[in-house]
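Instructor's aside before we start: the two examples that follow are unrelated to each other. I chose them only because their records fit on one page, so don't look for a connection. First example below.
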Amino acid sequence: MKDVLIQYMKRFSNLSEAELKELIIDIPVATFEKGTILLHQGEIPDKCYFVLQGCVRQYAVDENGNESTYNFFTEEQSITIFNQHTTDKASQYALSCLEDCTLVVGDLAAEQDSYDMHPVLEAMTRKMIQEDMGAMRDEFSAFISSTPEERFHALMEKRPDLIDRVPQYQLASYLGITPESFSRIKKRAEASHLKIVD
């Protein structure tokens, strides 16, 4: 299972596969059942994750009990809640396993110790974070300037697997539309696809 992590790390390092295997030998991997809450909203995060298998949802619940979905993390994606800029360091989000998950589990408190032991890991992590932050910024800019229909088509183009892995109402929330609108847009897209195939 760690082969997924090695393939991902190759994108950010010139180390050989043997060197990468040596680097991750002590990295903890854990399995979590579907429905497991990895982080409750309001808790101070002390872990970060990398998805080897499964799907994790990032969401928040407002004072009226309404849920809003902000992201889905699937294979070869890292999960870190960045909140060092806040006064109490509490997470505004919750993390929940939508499927049975196999995750690399990092201890944020021991992060510097890992870097001291493996200096190459710090440079690699910095590159990973830069790529993640850049992708998030681009996605947010595209999201703000797009219509619901365009958001749906972007989802189908970039992450089509989510359609079969995530409940429709959560996908609707992620796209910032109602479940009814999501259903209508999906039906139009399916009808359009059928015409193209014909």
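Example two begins here.
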Amino acid sequence: MADAERKPHRVKVDRSEGFGERLLGVLLDRAHEMPPQLIAPLIAEEVASIGGRDVSILLQDYEQMLLVPLPGRRLVVGDPEPIEDSPAGDAFLRARTVEVPQDGSVRMYLPLLDGSDQVGAMVVTLDDVDDDDRRLLRRLAGLVADMIVTKDAYTDLFFQARRRADMTVAAEIQWSLLPPLSMIVPQVEVAGILEPAYYVAGDSFDYALNDDILHVAMIDAMGHGLDAATMATVAIGAYRHTRRVNTELSQMYAFMDDAISAQFGPDHFVTAQMMCLNITTGQLQWVNAGHPAPLLIRDRAVVDRLESPTTLPVGFGGEEPQVSERMLQRGDRLLCFTDGLIEEHQSGEEQFGEEQLIECTNRTLHEHASVRAVTRSLSHALKRERGGATSDDATIFLIEWRGGKADHLTTLE
């Protein structure tokens, strides 16, 4: 028989279900129709099957100060844990498992990660822990995070758990607009934060990673309350529309300008900044429509401001803006912020100012490493430096470019 006529050799693959596959498979099989309130007892049952007990699900609150317990049948609901200086906070901020020995047992804190967005932490107690337990619990925590994010789209349970104070209608609108507060891929990491969390109205940000291009926008709508939130909604909607049809940066400005002007008239405006970063090459392009210049961070210190020609805020009918360009070096970070961060001042006193912002940023960069931890800590430190005052919205968005490729993630080892 000729070689071409021979049937290919078939390799027999063991497809039998092992313990780990069964454990995680039950969650996957039921996830698509699982009502949100039944997630808790199923997780508790899954953990019990490997000898675990006293399960808690901790979610990040909107101010990013605490990890608050999710109520649920068979879950342990204790006091909120601070993100700073707690085992749960360490697992959350550093995206790693933390093990705390107790009398005859181990309390494990596992980060809940969904697409790199840090949801919170899962806590469980076992009598003893081996590498198989660690592997299964880490993967189980990943599935739990996915379920929470998915179910959050059609329940208020997780919002109610995370909310620690009354929230204005304008703030509710703004939070519903936001993408995940952080994203990590091998080539780039981003993180953002809004203040005041329960009263924010006009500030917002958006981003999308389309192939090798990271698109970022920050906006600040004039005024306060519902008027500002409504303008911000229109501005972000116009930005997403133009981004999704592959519009150039200068044309994005024109479309957003027309949308705000047509909807709100000539006396209303939104400051904006739009960026495109090629995450393979490090080429950065941006348009500035009334925002403070972003700060360039290199080797854990602010080294430059991204000065560029500016055009009028959207809504005022400015001329076609000039697109600025710069090549980043690997490891460079860009700190983008709205003017509420530097213009805050007590009555009759000087504004907080950019120099104090830079000093505080440099201190924070020496204390924290990850983009998410820096963003959160910097925002809180700046709030303390400003005497806890937040008379205007204050938003931070931090980008770190690393370059390289992510193809290794498609290879099964």
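The CA atoms of residues 175 and 204 lie 9 Å apart.
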